[in-house]
Amino acid sequence: MAYSSFEDLEVWQRASNLAVRIYEELRGCRDFGLKDQMTRAAVSIASNIAEGAERDTKPEFIRFLHISKGSAAELRTQVLIAGRIGILAEPAKTDIVEELVRVSSMIHGLIKSLKRSS
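Now predict its structure.
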């Protein structure tokens, strides 16, 4: 897996696009607690991919990828709750959940790839 910068990683690109989407979808949300948690989790996914990619060792990168994957699960839970309480409507809720599943799967694949190449 060759890359020159974390910005080259498709998983980082998708995660950062997802963070922007969360901010856009929640722009008018008045539930500031949930909005804050969701935006923090969304930003954490891409941020931990970036931070791990900039570390000096594969084990460190893998550790940050696990954190990123956890943030994706956290955000998926929050999106599902936001849908149930009417903060996120369809089809946005389903689209975001599907993208989170894809991003989580990509992170998992990257972890496996890094472990194999160690």
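The mean pLDDT is 96.
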